[in-house]
Design brief:
alpha+beta
Length: 236
Protein backbone atom coordinates (compact mmCIF):
# COMPACT_ATOMS: atom_id res chain seq x y z
CA UNK A 1 0.00 0.00 0.00
CA UNK A 2 2.86 2.35 0.85
CA UNK A 3 4.48 1.67 -2.51
CA UNK A 4 1.22 2.52 -4.31
CA UNK A 5 0.86 5.78 -2.35
CA UNK A 6 4.47 6.69 -3.08
CA UNK A 7 3.92 6.03 -6.78
CA UNK A 8 0.84 8.23 -6.92
CA UNK A 9 2.68 10.99 -5.04
CA UNK A 10 5.57 10.84 -7.49
CA UNK A 11 3.21 10.98 -10.46
CA UNK A 12 1.38 13.95 -8.95
CA UNK A 13 4.63 15.83 -8.44
CA UNK A 14 5.65 15.17 -12.03
CA UNK A 15 2.31 16.50 -13.25
CA UNK A 16 2.60 19.81 -11.38
CA UNK A 17 5.11 21.51 -13.72
CA UNK A 18 3.11 20.46 -16.78
CA UNK A 19 -0.11 21.81 -15.27
CA UNK A 20 1.58 25.09 -14.34
CA UNK A 21 2.98 25.50 -17.85
CA UNK A 22 -0.43 24.77 -19.37
CA UNK A 23 -1.96 27.50 -17.20
CA UNK A 24 0.52 30.09 -18.47
CA UNK A 25 0.01 28.93 -22.06
CA UNK A 26 -3.73 29.43 -21.61
CA UNK A 27 -3.07 32.92 -20.29
CA UNK A 28 -1.14 33.77 -23.45
CA UNK A 29 -3.99 32.45 -25.57
CA UNK A 30 -6.40 34.65 -23.62
CA UNK A 31 -4.20 37.67 -24.33
CA UNK A 32 -4.59 36.93 -28.03
CA UNK A 33 -8.33 36.54 -27.64
CA UNK A 34 -8.64 39.90 -25.85
CA UNK A 35 -6.68 41.75 -28.55
CA UNK A 36 -8.70 40.06 -31.30
CA UNK A 37 -12.01 41.04 -29.76
CA UNK A 38 -10.97 44.62 -28.96
CA UNK A 39 -9.50 45.30 -32.39
CA UNK A 40 -12.61 43.84 -34.04
CA UNK A 41 -15.01 46.49 -32.70
CA UNK A 42 -15.43 49.82 -34.54
CA UNK A 43 -14.74 52.15 -31.59
CA UNK A 44 -11.51 50.56 -30.39
CA UNK A 45 -7.93 51.72 -29.81
CA UNK A 46 -7.21 54.47 -32.36
CA UNK A 47 -4.96 53.15 -35.11
CA UNK A 48 -2.60 56.12 -34.83
CA UNK A 49 -1.95 55.31 -31.17
CA UNK A 50 -1.38 51.61 -31.73
CA UNK A 51 1.03 52.50 -34.55
CA UNK A 52 3.00 54.77 -32.21
CA UNK A 53 3.19 52.29 -29.33
CA UNK A 54 6.56 50.70 -28.59
CA UNK A 55 5.03 47.93 -26.41
CA UNK A 56 1.59 46.51 -25.67
CA UNK A 57 0.54 44.92 -22.39
CA UNK A 58 -2.56 42.72 -22.21
CA UNK A 59 -4.00 41.57 -18.89
CA UNK A 60 -7.12 39.42 -19.32
CA UNK A 61 -9.82 38.92 -16.70
CA UNK A 62 -8.58 40.99 -13.76
CA UNK A 63 -10.90 40.52 -10.81
CA UNK A 64 -11.49 42.49 -7.64
CA UNK A 65 -11.16 40.07 -4.75
CA UNK A 66 -11.62 42.51 -1.89
CA UNK A 67 -12.20 46.18 -1.17
CA UNK A 68 -9.22 48.43 -0.68
CA UNK A 69 -5.73 48.38 -2.09
CA UNK A 70 -3.99 45.07 -2.65
CA UNK A 71 -7.21 43.18 -3.29
CA UNK A 72 -6.93 43.30 -7.08
CA UNK A 73 -4.58 41.13 -9.02
CA UNK A 74 -4.16 40.11 -12.62
CA UNK A 75 -1.61 38.44 -14.85
CA UNK A 76 -0.90 38.95 -18.50
CA UNK A 77 1.89 39.57 -20.97
CA UNK A 78 3.93 42.33 -22.57
CA UNK A 79 5.33 42.35 -26.10
CA UNK A 80 7.47 45.10 -27.67
CA UNK A 81 8.55 45.89 -31.18
CA UNK A 82 11.97 44.41 -31.83
CA UNK A 83 15.09 45.92 -33.36
CA UNK A 84 16.83 49.23 -33.05
CA UNK A 85 14.39 52.04 -32.23
CA UNK A 86 11.60 49.43 -32.01
CA UNK A 87 11.21 49.16 -35.78
CA UNK A 88 10.94 45.37 -36.07
CA UNK A 89 8.08 42.88 -35.62
CA UNK A 90 6.53 42.26 -32.22
CA UNK A 91 8.66 40.28 -29.76
CA UNK A 92 8.14 37.10 -27.82
CA UNK A 93 6.02 37.99 -24.79
CA UNK A 94 7.15 38.29 -21.20
CA UNK A 95 4.68 37.42 -18.48
CA UNK A 96 3.74 40.28 -16.15
CA UNK A 97 1.50 40.92 -13.14
CA UNK A 98 -0.55 43.98 -12.21
CA UNK A 99 -1.95 44.63 -8.76
CA UNK A 100 -3.31 47.24 -6.36
CA UNK A 101 -4.10 50.77 -7.39
CA UNK A 102 -7.37 52.56 -8.01
CA UNK A 103 -8.82 50.38 -10.74
CA UNK A 104 -10.57 48.01 -8.33
CA UNK A 105 -13.27 50.57 -7.57
CA UNK A 106 -14.08 50.79 -11.28
CA UNK A 107 -14.30 47.06 -11.82
CA UNK A 108 -17.34 46.64 -9.60
CA UNK A 109 -16.72 42.97 -8.92
CA UNK A 110 -16.72 41.86 -12.55
CA UNK A 111 -13.84 40.47 -14.58
CA UNK A 112 -12.13 43.20 -16.59
CA UNK A 113 -9.58 43.03 -19.40
CA UNK A 114 -6.85 45.67 -19.53
CA UNK A 115 -4.68 46.85 -22.43
CA UNK A 116 -1.76 49.23 -21.86
CA UNK A 117 0.14 51.01 -24.62
CA UNK A 118 3.73 51.99 -23.81
CA UNK A 119 4.32 55.06 -25.94
CA UNK A 120 8.05 55.89 -25.75
CA UNK A 121 11.45 54.44 -24.78
CA UNK A 122 11.32 56.05 -21.32
CA UNK A 123 8.06 54.24 -20.67
CA UNK A 124 9.64 51.00 -21.88
CA UNK A 125 12.55 51.41 -19.47
CA UNK A 126 10.14 52.02 -16.61
CA UNK A 127 7.82 49.12 -17.40
CA UNK A 128 10.71 46.65 -17.72
CA UNK A 129 11.92 47.26 -14.19
CA UNK A 130 11.39 44.30 -11.89
CA UNK A 131 8.58 46.39 -10.39
CA UNK A 132 7.16 49.83 -11.15
CA UNK A 133 4.23 51.99 -10.08
CA UNK A 134 2.06 53.67 -12.68
CA UNK A 135 1.97 57.41 -12.12
CA UNK A 136 5.11 57.42 -10.00
CA UNK A 137 7.73 55.65 -12.12
CA UNK A 138 6.00 56.48 -15.41
CA UNK A 139 3.31 58.99 -16.38
CA UNK A 140 0.01 57.28 -17.16
CA UNK A 141 -3.33 58.42 -18.57
CA UNK A 142 -6.64 56.92 -19.60
CA UNK A 143 -6.36 56.20 -23.29
CA UNK A 144 -8.68 58.00 -25.71
CA UNK A 145 -10.61 55.90 -28.18
CA UNK A 146 -12.15 56.46 -31.57
CA UNK A 147 -12.61 60.11 -32.51
CA UNK A 148 -11.82 61.31 -28.97
CA UNK A 149 -8.14 60.75 -29.78
CA UNK A 150 -8.20 63.89 -31.94
CA UNK A 151 -9.17 66.00 -28.93
CA UNK A 152 -6.62 64.44 -26.57
CA UNK A 153 -3.33 65.54 -28.13
CA UNK A 154 -1.90 66.89 -24.86
CA UNK A 155 -2.67 63.68 -23.00
CA UNK A 156 -1.12 61.54 -25.71
CA UNK A 157 2.03 63.67 -25.91
CA UNK A 158 2.63 63.78 -22.15
CA UNK A 159 1.72 60.23 -21.13
CA UNK A 160 4.29 57.45 -21.31
CA UNK A 161 1.61 54.80 -20.87
CA UNK A 162 -2.03 54.84 -22.05
CA UNK A 163 -4.48 52.47 -20.38
CA UNK A 164 -7.75 50.89 -21.49
CA UNK A 165 -10.28 48.52 -19.95
CA UNK A 166 -13.07 46.32 -21.18
CA UNK A 167 -15.80 45.01 -18.91
CA UNK A 168 -19.19 43.56 -19.86
CA UNK A 169 -18.55 44.51 -23.47
CA UNK A 170 -17.81 48.16 -22.68
CA UNK A 171 -14.43 49.42 -23.87
CA UNK A 172 -12.99 52.70 -22.59
CA UNK A 173 -9.93 54.50 -21.33
CA UNK A 174 -9.44 53.93 -17.60
CA UNK A 175 -7.17 55.30 -14.91
CA UNK A 176 -4.70 52.81 -13.46
CA UNK A 177 -2.92 55.44 -11.37
CA UNK A 178 -1.09 53.83 -8.46
CA UNK A 179 -1.23 50.29 -9.81
CA UNK A 180 1.95 48.22 -9.63
CA UNK A 181 3.25 46.40 -12.69
CA UNK A 182 6.00 43.80 -12.24
CA UNK A 183 7.60 41.07 -14.27
CA UNK A 184 6.38 37.57 -13.41
CA UNK A 185 9.60 35.59 -13.24
CA UNK A 186 8.03 32.34 -12.12
CA UNK A 187 5.57 32.45 -15.03
CA UNK A 188 8.39 33.16 -17.50
CA UNK A 189 10.24 30.13 -16.20
CA UNK A 190 7.16 27.98 -16.76
CA UNK A 191 6.64 29.29 -20.30
CA UNK A 192 10.26 29.20 -21.46
CA UNK A 193 11.68 26.46 -19.26
CA UNK A 194 14.44 28.64 -17.82
CA UNK A 195 14.79 31.86 -15.82
CA UNK A 196 14.51 34.93 -18.04
CA UNK A 197 13.85 38.57 -17.28
CA UNK A 198 11.34 40.67 -19.19
CA UNK A 199 14.19 42.67 -20.73
CA UNK A 200 15.95 39.52 -21.94
CA UNK A 201 12.77 38.32 -23.62
CA UNK A 202 11.29 41.42 -25.24
CA UNK A 203 14.39 43.54 -25.93
CA UNK A 204 17.32 41.15 -26.13
CA UNK A 205 15.54 38.37 -28.04
CA UNK A 206 16.78 35.54 -25.84
CA UNK A 207 13.62 33.46 -26.30
CA UNK A 208 11.40 32.39 -29.18
CA UNK A 209 7.69 33.02 -28.93
CA UNK A 210 5.73 29.95 -27.76
CA UNK A 211 2.90 28.61 -29.90
CA UNK A 212 0.32 29.94 -27.45
CA UNK A 213 1.42 33.51 -28.24
CA UNK A 214 1.12 33.21 -32.01
CA UNK A 215 -2.38 34.71 -32.27
CA UNK A 216 -1.43 37.71 -30.13
CA UNK A 217 1.70 38.43 -32.17
CA UNK A 218 0.05 37.71 -35.53
CA UNK A 219 -2.74 40.18 -34.77
CA UNK A 220 -0.36 42.94 -33.69
CA UNK A 221 1.86 42.36 -36.72
CA UNK A 222 -1.22 42.48 -38.93
CA UNK A 223 -2.91 45.54 -37.42
CA UNK A 224 0.27 47.48 -36.67
CA UNK A 225 3.25 46.18 -38.66
CA UNK A 226 5.11 49.50 -38.74
CA UNK A 227 6.18 51.76 -35.89
CA UNK A 228 5.17 55.35 -36.66
CA UNK A 229 6.41 56.99 -33.49
CA UNK A 230 9.00 59.79 -33.58
CA UNK A 231 11.45 57.37 -31.98
CA UNK A 232 11.33 55.19 -35.11
CA UNK A 233 12.19 57.99 -37.51
CA UNK A 234 15.47 57.53 -39.43
CA UNK A 235 18.43 59.20 -37.79
CA UNK A 236 16.96 59.23 -34.31
Amino acid sequence: MRKVCALWTALALLALPAAAQEKEQERLKNCGRVIKEILSVPDNIPQELLDKAECVIVVPSVKKFALGFGGKYGRGAITCRTGRNFTGPWSAPSMIAIEGGSFGLQIGGTATDFVLLVMNPKGVESILKSEMKLGADASVAAGPKGRTAEAATDIIMNAEILTYSRSKGLFAGVSLQGSTVREDGSANRKVYGRPLTAREIVLEGKASAPAAAQELLALLNRYSPQNKSRNAEPGR
